[in-house]
């Protein structure tokens, strides 16, 4: 789909990385980017985020390039989005909607699809305009429409009905997960969850550790569903390892809310392996973003071991680093080349040993 990208430079130091990441997201959603308009602003304009001169410029670009959609690299308020759409006469997809769109593309499991649809509907319900006509096509059913209601009100009401149905379905799925987790807890199995920024290499590491076939790919949000495998680790015994959805800066809160069921696995893990792309210049900032999301979902106090992945490109040797208590705090690996995996196993095994005598809470603190 022919897309015009509007990128707003708010003067932050990491603007370039932010802009590049957005282009990756756009391509991930299947956008054919015909032009990128960069706008420098010190702060957002209340009416249209960018000033009226730039709005005119963008509108002219939409015409000239034949763009069918405008992708905006910031979150827009419903009013800002409406204003821009009125000027452009094509749909405007903000950063939040774009991430939701990619999630919709990638969702495979029933649960994943339900979660994404829920988040999408919640995002959409506040910003329905005549350009979002697909809802009209989905509208059906005699008796749903109240007397004198406008089209948009009807759509909003239908969304409310659907949101409630999806929530109920999710609750059922959540109860099933809870039962499974309780069974595992009874078996005293150590549970380890892989967390990290999107594209850090979680699924690749998961596959390397479990010899499973989780989908790993050079795309943002390749994984949406939680996959769990049992492995035997010398010194730790039976361990349950989970691979899950990656995080990104400014992850839309509604998405976190919708994905709470998937993230439950992480919230209840005994140990988190925080996978970092050691080759990324943004790795520290990305790790901080991941910790922010962990905080949001209530998983910030779970013991964490940092796994620096992709050392083959970053130019490090495989090794483990210990903290001042002598506990392994950092492991350097190449999941792709399967180097340093013994360090990961060792860190899990040592943690398992510590858990046995309850000493871990003093010695393994999240960074
Ligand atoms: N060079 C190098 N590339 C790696 C390594 N580990 C993973 N990759 C590549 O990084 C890309 C992302 O890997 P994934 O395992 O899908 O990453 P992920 O963290 O699961 O990503 P999401 O599911 O999107 O959050 C893929 O192209 C992998 O081949 C590594 O150790 N070295
Ligand atoms: Mg993955």
Strand order of the largest sheet: 6-7-5-8-9-11-10
Helical fraction: 40-55%
Radius of gyration: 23 Å
CATH topology name of the largest domain: Rossmann fold
Strand content: 15-25%
CATH architecture of the largest domain: 3-Layer(aba) Sandwich
Estimate the mean pLDDT confidence.
85
Number of strands: 11
Q: Main β-sheet: number of strands, strand sense, barrel status?
A: 7 strands, mixed
CATH homologous group name of the largest domain: P-loop containing nucleotide triphosphate hydrolases
Low-pLDDT sequence parts:
133-137, 139-148, 357-362
Backbone structural class: alpha/beta
What is the CATH domain class of the largest domain? Alpha Beta
The shape, in one word, is: globular
H/E element string? EHEHEHEHHHHEHEEHHEHEHEEHH
Bound molecules: guanosine-5'-triphosphate, magnesium ion
Task: Compute the number of helices.
Answer: 14
Alpha carbon gap, first and last residue? 42 Å
What count of structural domains? 3
Structure description:
The chain has 367 residues and is α/β, with parallel strands linked by helices. The chain has 3 domains: 92 residues, 3-Layer(aba) Sandwich (Rossmann fold), CATH 3.40.50.11060; 61 residues; 176 residues, Rossmann fold (3-Layer(aba) Sandwich). 46% of the residues lie in helices and 18% in strands. It contains 14 helices and 11 strands. A 7-stranded mixed beta sheet has the order 6-7-5-8-9-11-10, with helices on both faces. It has a 4-stranded parallel beta sheet with strand order 2-1-3-4, sandwiched between helices. Strand 10 and strand 11 form a beta hairpin. About 6% of the residues have low confidence. The structure holds guanosine-5'-triphosphate and magnesium ion (MG). Guanosine-5'-triphosphate binds next to helix 8 and helix 12. Magnesium ion (MG) binds next to helix 8.
């Amino acid at each position: 789909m022919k897309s015009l990208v509007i990128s707003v430079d708010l003067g932050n130091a990491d603007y370039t990385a932010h802009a590049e990441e957005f282009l990756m997201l756009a391509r991930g959603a299947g956008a054919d980017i015909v032009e990128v308009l960069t706008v420098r602003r010190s702060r957002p304009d209340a009416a249209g985020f960018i000033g009226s001169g730039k709005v005119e410029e963008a509108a002219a670009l939409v015409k000239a390039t034949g763009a069918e959609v405008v992708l905006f690299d910031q979150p827009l308020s419903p009013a800002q989005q409406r204003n821009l759409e009125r000027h452009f006469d094509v749909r405007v997809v903000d950063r939040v909607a774009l991430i939701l769109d990619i999630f919709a593309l990638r969702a495979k499991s029933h649960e994943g699809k339900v979660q994404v649809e829920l988040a999408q509907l919640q995002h959409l319900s506040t910003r329905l305009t005549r350009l979002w006509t697909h809802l009209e096509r989905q509208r059906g059913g005699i008796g749903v429409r109240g007397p004198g209601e406008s089209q948009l009100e009807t759509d909003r009401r239908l969304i409310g009905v659907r949101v409630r149905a999806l929530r109920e379905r999710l609750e059922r799925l959540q109860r099933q997960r809870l039962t499974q987790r309780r069974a595992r807890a009874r078996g005293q199995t150590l549970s380890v969850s892989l967390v990290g920024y999107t594209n850090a290499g979680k699924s690749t590491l998961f596959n390397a550790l479990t010899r499973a076939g989780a989908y790993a790919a050079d795309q943002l949000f390749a994984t949406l569903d939680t996959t769990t495998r049992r492995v035997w680790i010398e010194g730790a015994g039976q361990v349950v390892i989970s691979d899950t959805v990656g995080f990104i800066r400014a992850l839309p809160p509604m998405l976190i809310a919708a994905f709470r069921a998937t993230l439950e696995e992480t919230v209840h893990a005994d140990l988190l392996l925080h996978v970092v792309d050691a080759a990324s210049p943004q790795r520290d900032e990305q790790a901080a973003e991941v910790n922010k999301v962990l905080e949001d979902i209530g998983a910030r106090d779970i013991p964490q071991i940092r796994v620096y992945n992709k050392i083959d490109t970053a130019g490090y040797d495989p090794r483990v680093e210990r903290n001042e208590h002598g506990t392994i705090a950092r492991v350097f690996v190449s999941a792709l080349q399967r180097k340093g995996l013994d360090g990961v196993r060792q860190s899990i095994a040592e943690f398992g040993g510590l858990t046995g005598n309850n000493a871990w809470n003093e010695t393994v603190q999240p960074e």
